[in-house]
């Protein structure tokens, strides 16, 4: 037992040194991507919400675009860290959720430098926090309203985020907060955003903010595997495999956590499955759904590497980090 203790201390993966090294490497990925103009200039699309297209037209330059994208990434990672710390999603204090989210975003050129989901994912993380803080509170109408309001705001830039509202209703049901009042409050939250949007459309007599995004929302087009390269598949398979292993570990060791934490983690598992599923259903928004899947995956994978010990886990952790850095530089080289 003494040898095991010293082994786990000597092979800790949650130390400050690991965090600093990986964080500096992720910043280096942004710098390399900047000099290679990966993802820049940022263009709007015909089917994108007009607000996002308008933002793309007023972005002043490459340095500003990369700075905003990096700040949104670090902001989302910080929110994940705070949510994990306050809600105790992982039994031990760790920075791994922050680290994995930054790693997944920084090493995928499809997410750089700034996408419509950059702010949408930021809103989604805040919505998850609002949902979790309403646990076992049937009178949490304000939380239900705020949750849907945040998703509605995110949909102004990325309309497909609206597909996550049913998952939040499932979460409200499992957390015993779903009733007629909280359900109506959630509808009112989304309705508030689109009521103001409708008023804007009437005032300017331009209804394209409604017609264009919602035309793409219901247009399902299955993902064509031939359009994805081998390096892309390796990155997707790695995060999907780690998420699946983490989910299986949580399910098979569910009684090691309190009921509240088990239900939170179960919601994140469902959220990740839903995001990966939509990734294959919407070819035109596949990258956005993959970025969304990184939110629950970061916490689930961090939970696995925090609670598990051993040589295999230790080397898998570092192999995962090295793999994603290698994939990024290979893709930049091919680019």
UniProtKB/TrEMBL annotation:
Which superkingdom does the taxonomy of this entry point to? Bacteria
Q: Which residues cross the membrane?
A: 20-43, 63-83, 118-135, 147-171, 183-204, 225-252, 264-282, 312-333
- Is Transmembrane one of the keywords? yes
Supply the alphabetized keyword list.
Membrane, Transmembrane, Transmembrane helix
Q: What is this protein called?
A: Transmembrane protein
Species this protein is from: Parabacteroides faecis
